[in-house]
């Protein structure tokens, strides 16, 4: 198309610079090597870009080029038939010598062909603009505006709207070329042509499957082929017949969606659980013309494990592996609300390692860390699954005991104290002895918040220290 425009403009410039009729006629004939093929070349571009024709076969090319070829040949041989122009003369009255002629019948047929090609191209771009998403409409608009510009010169030339009968189309076409170049380079228009969409579908790292309204498989990409163990014989099969299927996916597809739908799928295996995200995209030209659905399956197993690790890091003490203060406060608040609502017993044990600073001074921080880890391991072994042990900070620990009355909490506290008193922690060839002080508090009607329960447990712990440490004290309601 750009070549045709360049040929047209080049020979028209030579025509304007010549003063002899026979020379001007030669340039005029050579112009048609470009003029004849601008319109079909533009229509070719429009059909290809908008995806109306994916592959141009010989019949298509013949249909586009037959009239331009005839026009070019008739123009070369016009002296013998006069179908392009009947008579011609050189108008020297203006600043430029202008070739003026009486138009023949085929000239008007040629004009109709150009008009049809350009109008059809304009319509194709306009339809594509209406059917495209907002983020690419600006790109299409640039091409559409560029396609409209030649109409200005075309109409002015045919109607002779200006006093000088110059064909300004030759000068306006470069403006169209600038629009096209700006759109193609600045916005990279060809990145969104239908061919690229097909390539994108095949190259997607996620599994993509296309189903018709009867849930029959219509198409799939390479990733889906591997994920679902598909082959060419899978085309036409129902989703439930595929080698790998999920009930939840089948359930969501059975009722065609009118808008984007996303959900997660879990698959349990002997090695580990696998997680997938399924995105269902309705395929429709408009909301009332649903033709099928596309399913995108993405393996998010690594992402789920990463999220779980981050969650654990945010709620777990890095040294002991126990829960941290933040998580402990949250779970205590949840259990306290449950106890208040259903009148279920709830107890808290608060523990402090006695004279822990002396352990750090005697054995170093590595020795102190070893004691903290050993005590945390003891808690993990002695507690139930529903209990929560946490390191609140330093040498202070707490245990949340749901569905536990004060008697059972006191029994557990004494067992822990005795076990610690009789145990030793080995570190760098040395055996470290330590003891713990414990405060026990249980929910009662006067407690209305987590802070109230923790305060009672802390008071009991403080009293245990006052009593000489290595003992258990149960909080008494104020």
Describe this protein's structure.
The chain is built from 15 helices and 14 strands. The strands form four sheets. A five-stranded antiparallel sheet has the order 4-3-7-6-5, sandwiched between helices. Strands 9-10-8-13-14 form a five-stranded mixed sheet, with helices on both faces. The protein is an alpha+beta fold. The model has no long low-confidence stretch (mean pLDDT 84). Strand 1 and strand 2 (98-103) form a beta hairpin. It has helices at residues 2-16, 21-49, 58-76, 78-81, 105-130, 134-159, 169-186, 194-203, 222-228, 247-254, 301-315, 325-342, 356-382, 406-421, 450-466; strands spanning 85-91, 98-103, 207-212, 217-220, 261-267, 274-284, 290-299, 346-353, 388-393, 396-402, 424-427, 430-433, 436-442, 472-474. The chain folds into three domains: 2-193, no CATH class; 204-303, 2-Layer Sandwich (Beta-Lactamase); 316-474, 2-Layer Sandwich (Alpha-Beta Plaits), CATH 3.30.70.
What's a quick, concise take on this entry?
A hairpin with a 6-residue loop joins strand 5 (261-267) and strand 6. The chain contains 15 helices and 14 strands.
The rounded Rg comes to 42 Å
Question: Distance N terminus to C terminus?
Answer: 93 Å
Percent of residues in helices comes to: 40-55%
Order of helix and strand elements from N to C terminus: HHHHEEHHHHEEHHEEEHHEHEEHEEEHE
The number of helical elements comes to: 15
* Secondary structure category: alpha+beta
Tally of structural domains: 3
Oligomer: single chain
What is the percentage of strand-forming residues? 15-25%
**Which ranges are low-confidence, i.e. pLDDT below 50, for 5 or more consecutive residues?**
none
Q: Give the biggest sheet.
A: 5 strands, antiparallel
Shape: elongated
Secondary structure: number of strands: 14
């Amino acid at each position: 198309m750009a070549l045709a425009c360049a040929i047209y403009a080049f020979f028209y410039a030579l025509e304007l610079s010549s003063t002899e009729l026979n020379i001007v006629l030669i340039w005029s004939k050579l112009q048609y090597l470009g003029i004849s093929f601008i319109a079909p070349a533009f229509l070719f571009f429009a059909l290809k870009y908008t995806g109306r024709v994916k592959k141009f076969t010989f019949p298509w090319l013949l249909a586009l080029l037959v009239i331009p070829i005839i026009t070019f040949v008739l123009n070369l041989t016009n002296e013998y038939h006069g179908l392009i122009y009947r008579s011609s003369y050189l108008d020297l009255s203006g600043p430029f010598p202008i070739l003026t002629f009486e138009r023949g019948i085929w000239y008007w047929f040629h004009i109709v062909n150009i008009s049809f090609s350009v109008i059809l191209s304009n319509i194709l771009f306009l339809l594509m603009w209406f059917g495209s998403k907002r983020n690419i409409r600006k790109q299409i608009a640039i091409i559409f505006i560029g396609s409209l510009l030649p109409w200005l010169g075309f109409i002015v030339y045919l109607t002779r709207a200006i006093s000088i009968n110059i064909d300004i189309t030759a000068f306006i076409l470069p403006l169209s070329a600038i629009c096209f170049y700006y759109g193609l380079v600045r916005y990279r228009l060809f990145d969104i042509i239908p061919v690229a969409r097909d390539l994108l579908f095949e190259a997607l790292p996620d599994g993509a499957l296309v189903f018709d309204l009867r849930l029959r498989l219509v198409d799939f990409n390479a990733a889906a082929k591997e994920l679902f163990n598909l082959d060419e014989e899978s085309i036409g099969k129902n989703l439930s017949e595929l080698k790998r299927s999920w009930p939840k996916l089948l359930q969501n597809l059975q009722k065609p969606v009118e808008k984007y739908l996303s959900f997660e799928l879990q698959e349990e295996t002997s090695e580990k659980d696998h997680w997938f995200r399924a995105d269902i995209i309705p395929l429709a030209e408009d909301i009332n013309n649903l033709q099928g659905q596309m399913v995108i399956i993405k393996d998010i197993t690594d992402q789920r494990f990463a999220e779980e690790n981050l969650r654990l890091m945010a709620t777990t003490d890095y040294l002991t592996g126990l829960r941290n203060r933040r998580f402990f406060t949250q779970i205590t608040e949840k259990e306290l609300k449950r106890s208040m609502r259903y009148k279920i017993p709830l107890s808290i044990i608060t523990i402090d390692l006695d004279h822990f600073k002396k352990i750090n001074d005697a054995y170093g921080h590595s020795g102190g860390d070893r004691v903290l880890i050993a005590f945390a391991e003891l808690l993990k072994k002695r507690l139930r699954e529903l209990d929560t042990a946490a390191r609140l900070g330093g040498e202070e620990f707490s245990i949340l005991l749901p569905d536990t009355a004060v008697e059972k909490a006191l029994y557990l506290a004494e067992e822990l104290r005795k076990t610690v008193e009789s145990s030793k922690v080995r570190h760098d060839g040395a055996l470290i002895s330590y003891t713990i002080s414990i405060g026990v508090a249980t929910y009662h009607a006067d407690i209305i918040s987590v802070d109230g329960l923790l305060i009672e447990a802390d008071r009991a712990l403080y009293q245990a220290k006052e009593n000489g440490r290595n003992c258990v004290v149960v909080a008494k309601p104020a």
